[in-house]
Protein backbone atom coordinates (compact mmCIF):
# COMPACT_ATOMS: atom_id res chain seq x y z
CA UNK A 1 0.00 0.00 0.00
CA UNK A 2 1.24 3.47 -0.95
CA UNK A 3 2.20 5.71 1.94
CA UNK A 4 1.75 9.51 2.18
CA UNK A 5 5.48 9.76 1.57
CA UNK A 6 5.12 7.77 -1.66
CA UNK A 7 2.27 10.03 -2.74
CA UNK A 8 4.32 13.17 -2.11
CA UNK A 9 7.22 11.74 -4.08
CA UNK A 10 4.93 10.92 -7.02
CA UNK A 11 3.50 14.43 -7.00
CA UNK A 12 7.00 15.92 -6.92
CA UNK A 13 7.95 13.78 -9.92
CA UNK A 14 4.93 15.02 -11.87
CA UNK A 15 5.72 18.63 -11.03
CA UNK A 16 9.34 18.20 -12.11
CA UNK A 17 8.25 16.57 -15.37
CA UNK A 18 5.96 19.53 -16.06
CA UNK A 19 8.78 21.95 -15.30
CA UNK A 20 11.18 20.07 -17.60
CA UNK A 21 8.59 20.08 -20.40
CA UNK A 22 8.09 23.84 -20.02
CA UNK A 23 11.84 24.35 -20.36
CA UNK A 24 11.93 22.20 -23.49
CA UNK A 25 9.02 24.11 -25.04
CA UNK A 26 10.61 27.43 -24.07
CA UNK A 27 13.98 26.71 -25.68
CA UNK A 28 12.35 25.33 -28.83
CA UNK A 29 10.21 28.48 -29.07
CA UNK A 30 13.32 30.63 -28.63
CA UNK A 31 15.02 28.74 -31.44
CA UNK A 32 12.08 29.49 -33.71
CA UNK A 33 12.10 33.15 -32.66
CA UNK A 34 15.81 33.33 -33.49
CA UNK A 35 15.00 33.14 -37.20
CA UNK A 36 13.66 36.71 -37.06
CA UNK A 37 16.48 38.18 -34.94
CA UNK A 38 19.67 39.87 -36.15
CA UNK A 39 22.26 37.19 -36.84
CA UNK A 40 25.59 37.12 -35.07
CA UNK A 41 26.83 35.47 -38.26
CA UNK A 42 25.62 38.35 -40.47
CA UNK A 43 27.92 38.77 -43.49
CA UNK A 44 26.87 42.41 -43.87
CA UNK A 45 28.54 43.30 -40.58
CA UNK A 46 31.58 41.28 -41.58
CA UNK A 47 31.94 43.15 -44.87
CA UNK A 48 31.96 46.51 -43.05
CA UNK A 49 34.60 45.29 -40.64
CA UNK A 50 36.66 43.76 -43.44
CA UNK A 51 36.75 47.11 -45.21
CA UNK A 52 38.06 48.87 -42.13
CA UNK A 53 40.55 46.09 -41.43
CA UNK A 54 41.88 46.30 -44.98
CA UNK A 55 42.37 50.06 -44.61
CA UNK A 56 44.33 49.50 -41.41
CA UNK A 57 46.50 46.76 -42.97
CA UNK A 58 47.33 49.07 -45.89
CA UNK A 59 48.19 51.87 -43.46
CA UNK A 60 50.54 49.60 -41.49
CA UNK A 61 52.22 48.20 -44.62
CA UNK A 62 53.00 51.71 -45.84
CA UNK A 63 54.63 52.53 -42.49
CA UNK A 64 56.69 49.31 -42.57
CA UNK A 65 57.86 49.82 -46.16
CA UNK A 66 58.77 53.44 -45.41
CA UNK A 67 61.11 52.16 -42.70
CA UNK A 68 62.46 49.54 -45.16
CA UNK A 69 61.40 46.54 -43.10
CA UNK A 70 59.74 43.28 -44.15
CA UNK A 71 55.90 43.66 -44.23
CA UNK A 72 55.57 39.85 -44.17
CA UNK A 73 57.37 39.54 -40.84
CA UNK A 74 54.65 38.84 -38.25
CA UNK A 75 56.67 40.31 -35.37
CA UNK A 76 57.23 43.52 -37.33
CA UNK A 77 53.54 43.81 -38.22
CA UNK A 78 52.54 43.23 -34.59
CA UNK A 79 55.02 45.90 -33.43
CA UNK A 80 53.73 48.45 -35.96
CA UNK A 81 50.09 47.58 -35.30
CA UNK A 82 50.49 48.55 -31.63
CA UNK A 83 52.71 51.54 -32.42
CA UNK A 84 50.40 53.24 -34.94
CA UNK A 85 46.87 52.39 -33.76
CA UNK A 86 46.35 55.86 -32.25
CA UNK A 87 47.66 57.64 -35.35
CA UNK A 88 45.39 55.57 -37.60
CA UNK A 89 42.39 56.28 -35.35
CA UNK A 90 43.09 60.01 -35.38
CA UNK A 91 43.48 60.07 -39.18
CA UNK A 92 40.14 58.33 -39.70
CA UNK A 93 38.37 60.60 -37.24
CA UNK A 94 39.96 63.85 -38.51
CA UNK A 95 39.02 63.04 -42.10
CA UNK A 96 35.47 62.39 -40.92
CA UNK A 97 35.51 59.59 -43.47
CA UNK A 98 34.03 56.84 -41.36
CA UNK A 99 30.29 56.40 -41.50
CA UNK A 100 28.66 54.11 -38.97
CA UNK A 101 25.82 52.22 -40.63
CA UNK A 102 23.90 50.73 -37.75
CA UNK A 103 22.62 47.20 -38.17
CA UNK A 104 19.07 48.29 -37.47
CA UNK A 105 19.05 50.55 -40.53
CA UNK A 106 19.96 54.00 -39.19
CA UNK A 107 23.03 55.91 -40.33
CA UNK A 108 25.00 58.37 -38.25
CA UNK A 109 28.28 60.01 -39.17
CA UNK A 110 30.98 60.19 -36.54
CA UNK A 111 32.58 63.61 -36.97
CA UNK A 112 35.73 65.06 -35.35
CA UNK A 113 34.14 67.14 -32.60
CA UNK A 114 36.17 67.25 -29.32
CA UNK A 115 32.96 67.98 -27.38
CA UNK A 116 31.33 64.72 -28.49
CA UNK A 117 33.20 62.47 -26.08
CA UNK A 118 30.90 59.52 -26.63
CA UNK A 119 31.22 59.73 -30.40
CA UNK A 120 34.99 60.10 -30.25
CA UNK A 121 35.41 57.07 -28.01
CA UNK A 122 32.89 55.11 -30.05
CA UNK A 123 34.79 55.84 -33.25
CA UNK A 124 37.95 54.45 -31.71
CA UNK A 125 36.15 51.24 -30.76
CA UNK A 126 34.72 50.92 -34.29
CA UNK A 127 38.27 50.99 -35.60
CA UNK A 128 39.19 48.46 -32.92
CA UNK A 129 36.38 46.17 -34.11
CA UNK A 130 37.78 46.34 -37.63
CA UNK A 131 41.22 45.43 -36.37
CA UNK A 132 39.82 42.55 -34.29
CA UNK A 133 38.16 41.20 -37.42
CA UNK A 134 41.33 41.57 -39.46
CA UNK A 135 43.26 39.78 -36.73
CA UNK A 136 41.00 36.72 -37.02
CA UNK A 137 38.46 37.34 -34.24
CA UNK A 138 35.22 37.87 -36.21
CA UNK A 139 32.79 36.98 -33.41
CA UNK A 140 34.46 39.33 -30.92
CA UNK A 141 34.56 42.01 -33.61
CA UNK A 142 30.87 41.73 -34.46
CA UNK A 143 29.81 41.69 -30.82
CA UNK A 144 31.82 44.85 -30.18
CA UNK A 145 30.62 46.51 -33.40
CA UNK A 146 26.99 45.89 -32.51
CA UNK A 147 27.41 47.59 -29.12
CA UNK A 148 28.54 50.86 -30.72
CA UNK A 149 25.07 52.28 -31.28
CA UNK A 150 22.47 53.75 -28.98
CA UNK A 151 19.93 50.93 -29.28
CA UNK A 152 21.76 47.76 -30.32
CA UNK A 153 19.58 44.80 -31.30
CA UNK A 154 19.91 41.32 -29.83
CA UNK A 155 22.46 39.21 -31.70
CA UNK A 156 21.61 35.56 -32.27
CA UNK A 157 23.35 32.53 -33.72
CA UNK A 158 20.90 29.83 -34.81
CA UNK A 159 21.57 26.11 -34.62
CA UNK A 160 24.26 25.36 -37.21
CA UNK A 161 25.43 28.98 -37.41
CA UNK A 162 29.12 29.85 -37.22
CA UNK A 163 29.06 30.99 -33.59
CA UNK A 164 26.76 28.10 -32.65
CA UNK A 165 29.15 25.54 -34.12
CA UNK A 166 32.19 27.18 -32.59
CA UNK A 167 30.69 27.19 -29.10
CA UNK A 168 29.49 23.59 -29.49
CA UNK A 169 33.02 22.46 -30.40
CA UNK A 170 34.72 24.03 -27.36
CA UNK A 171 35.99 21.86 -24.54
CA UNK A 172 33.75 23.82 -22.17
CA UNK A 173 30.56 23.02 -24.09
CA UNK A 174 31.59 19.43 -24.77
CA UNK A 175 31.97 18.91 -21.02
CA UNK A 176 28.62 20.58 -20.28
CA UNK A 177 26.84 18.33 -22.79
CA UNK A 178 28.70 15.23 -21.66
CA UNK A 179 27.72 15.82 -18.02
CA UNK A 180 24.13 16.48 -19.07
CA UNK A 181 23.95 13.28 -21.12
CA UNK A 182 25.19 11.22 -18.19
CA UNK A 183 22.26 12.53 -16.14
CA UNK A 184 19.79 11.58 -18.88
CA UNK A 185 20.65 7.93 -18.32
CA UNK A 186 19.03 8.13 -14.89
CA UNK A 187 15.81 9.82 -16.06
CA UNK A 188 12.61 7.78 -16.13
CA UNK A 189 10.39 10.46 -17.67
CA UNK A 190 10.25 11.98 -21.16
CA UNK A 191 11.73 15.37 -20.27
CA UNK A 192 14.70 16.79 -18.36
CA UNK A 193 16.38 20.19 -18.01
CA UNK A 194 18.85 22.14 -15.94
CA UNK A 195 20.11 25.72 -15.76
CA UNK A 196 23.74 26.61 -15.28
CA UNK A 197 26.64 28.64 -16.53
CA UNK A 198 29.81 28.22 -18.54
CA UNK A 199 33.07 30.16 -18.53
CA UNK A 200 34.91 30.31 -21.84
CA UNK A 201 38.67 30.75 -21.46
CA UNK A 202 41.66 30.56 -23.78
CA UNK A 203 42.24 27.03 -22.46
CA UNK A 204 38.77 25.55 -23.08
CA UNK A 205 37.61 27.66 -26.04
CA UNK A 206 38.95 29.79 -28.88
CA UNK A 207 40.40 33.21 -28.12
CA UNK A 208 37.66 34.68 -30.31
CA UNK A 209 34.92 33.29 -28.04
CA UNK A 210 36.88 34.18 -24.92
CA UNK A 211 37.05 37.82 -26.03
CA UNK A 212 33.41 37.92 -27.16
CA UNK A 213 31.55 36.03 -24.43
CA UNK A 214 33.70 34.78 -21.53
CA UNK A 215 31.04 34.03 -18.88
CA UNK A 216 27.64 32.86 -20.15
CA UNK A 217 24.41 31.41 -18.78
CA UNK A 218 22.98 28.13 -20.05
CA UNK A 219 19.66 26.31 -20.14
CA UNK A 220 19.88 22.72 -21.35
CA UNK A 221 16.62 20.86 -22.00
CA UNK A 222 15.84 17.48 -23.51
CA UNK A 223 12.88 15.42 -24.66
CA UNK A 224 12.81 11.70 -25.38
CA UNK A 225 11.28 10.78 -28.74
CA UNK A 226 11.22 7.16 -29.95
CA UNK A 227 14.01 6.22 -27.56
CA UNK A 228 16.31 9.11 -28.49
CA UNK A 229 16.96 12.16 -26.35
CA UNK A 230 16.82 15.39 -28.37
CA UNK A 231 18.89 18.04 -26.57
CA UNK A 232 18.33 21.79 -26.90
CA UNK A 233 20.93 24.15 -25.45
CA UNK A 234 20.42 27.89 -25.03
CA UNK A 235 23.62 29.85 -24.34
CA UNK A 236 22.92 33.43 -23.37
CA UNK A 237 24.86 36.48 -22.31
CA UNK A 238 24.59 40.24 -21.93
CA UNK A 239 27.35 41.93 -23.86
CA UNK A 240 28.77 44.37 -21.34
CA UNK A 241 31.89 45.16 -19.38
CA UNK A 242 32.69 45.64 -15.73
CA UNK A 243 35.90 46.72 -14.05
CA UNK A 244 37.87 43.64 -13.18
CA UNK A 245 41.08 42.01 -12.07
CA UNK A 246 40.04 38.71 -13.67
CA UNK A 247 42.13 35.94 -12.18
CA UNK A 248 41.67 33.93 -15.38
CA UNK A 249 42.86 36.75 -17.66
CA UNK A 250 46.63 36.42 -17.74
CA UNK A 251 47.06 38.80 -20.67
CA UNK A 252 47.60 42.27 -19.24
CA UNK A 253 46.65 43.91 -22.55
CA UNK A 254 43.27 42.13 -22.60
CA UNK A 255 42.64 43.23 -19.02
CA UNK A 256 43.55 46.82 -19.91
CA UNK A 257 41.18 46.79 -22.89
CA UNK A 258 38.40 45.32 -20.73
CA UNK A 259 38.73 48.08 -18.16
CA UNK A 260 38.89 50.82 -20.80
CA UNK A 261 35.71 49.32 -22.27
CA UNK A 262 34.11 49.60 -18.83
CA UNK A 263 34.81 53.34 -18.85
CA UNK A 264 33.51 53.60 -22.41
CA UNK A 265 30.31 51.85 -21.36
CA UNK A 266 29.87 54.30 -18.48
CA UNK A 267 29.80 57.26 -20.89
CA UNK A 268 27.45 55.49 -23.32
CA UNK A 269 29.93 54.74 -26.11
CA UNK A 270 29.41 51.01 -25.61
CA UNK A 271 25.82 49.91 -24.97
CA UNK A 272 24.97 46.49 -23.46
CA UNK A 273 22.63 44.11 -25.32
CA UNK A 274 21.60 40.40 -25.24
CA UNK A 275 23.36 37.60 -27.12
CA UNK A 276 21.65 34.25 -27.75
CA UNK A 277 23.31 31.16 -29.14
CA UNK A 278 21.41 27.92 -29.82
CA UNK A 279 22.83 24.42 -30.06
CA UNK A 280 21.24 21.02 -30.68
CA UNK A 281 22.52 17.56 -29.86
CA UNK A 282 21.16 14.09 -29.19
CA UNK A 283 21.80 10.95 -27.19
Explain what the structure shows.
This protein is 51% helix and 19% strand. By secondary structure, it is an alpha/beta fold. It folds into two domains: 16-37 and 155-282, no CATH class; 43-147, no CATH class. It has a six-stranded mixed sheet, sandwiched between helices. A two-stranded antiparallel ribbon has the order 2-3. Helix 2 packs across helix 3 (74-83), helix 2 (43-66) crosses helix 5 (117-134) and helix 5 (117-134) runs antiparallel to helix 6 (138-147).
What's the arrangement of strands in the largest beta sheet? Answer: 1-4-8-7-6-5
Termini, distance in Å? 37 Å
Query: Helical residue percent?
Result: 40-55%
Give the overall form: elongated
Largest sheet: 6 strands, mixed
pLDDT averaged residue by residue: 80
Low-confidence stretches: 96-116
Q: Enumerate how many helices there are, as a single number.
A: 10
Integer tally of domains: 2
The radius of gyration is: 23 Å
Q: What's the assembly state of these chains?
A: single chain
Class from helix and strand fractions: alpha/beta
Helix-strand string: HEHHHEEHHEHHEHEEHE
How many β strands by DSSP?
Answer: 8
- % residues in beta strands: 15-25%
